[in-house]
Amino acid sequence: MDFHQRRGSRNRILSEKQVIQVNEYVLRLMEETGCRVICGEALDILGSAGCDVRDPGRVKIPRKLVMESLEAAPREIEVFNRDGELAMVLREDTCYYGTGSDCPTTIDLYSAKRRLCTKEDVGRLTRFCDALPNIHETGSGL
């Protein structure tokens, strides 16, 4: 498998050798240690594909299945904005920035205290990010 970051990228963090090493560790972890899967449908799909799902807290995914899945995955994915216009093409050698997701807490702007995130918080963040030219997507785990 060919792993590399965009040539000339200022964001290069790992060497080519380190990227291959991290990939090998991930494959070993998935195959030998496993991962927790809490969705029953996902367990059924993984089990049908040949994964060891006897313990949902340690579902083991064979290296061969991971490699076959990566080969079968599309080489690029088009992402459209709310107006139906092409916003991003996710592919090798492209980089986009966003807010991330799965942030259940926020720092309240008025009290400066941590609290659970609300839909209103997500709306404010989305409007703010929409005005920023270097933020390409927003997400929320809500």
Structure, described:
- This protein has 142 residues and is α+β, with helices and mostly antiparallel strands.
- 35% of the residues lie in helices and 12% in strands.
- It has helices spanning 16-33, 40-48, 63-72, 119-130; strands at 76-80, 86-91, 105-107, 114-116.
- The strands form 2 sheets. A two-stranded antiparallel ribbon has the order 1-2. A two-stranded antiparallel ribbon has the order 3-4.
- It starts with 15 loop residues before the first helix and ends in a 12-residue tail after the last helix.
Number of strands: 4
Count of DSSP helices? 4
Structural classification: alpha+beta
**Are there runs of 5+ residues with pLDDT below 50, and where?**
none
Domain count: the total is 2
Report the sheet-strand fraction.
5-15%
**Spatial order of the strands forming the largest sheet:** 1-2
Name the overall outline.
extended
| Helix fraction by DSSP (H/I, runs of at least 4) | 25-40%
Give me the Rg, rounded: 19 Å
Mean pLDDT: 87
Task: Please write the string of helix (H) and strand (E) elements.
Answer: HHHEEEEH
For the largest beta-sheet, the strand count, sense and barrel status come to: 2 strands, antiparallel
Q: How far is it from the N-terminal to the C-terminal residue, by CA?
A: 35 Å
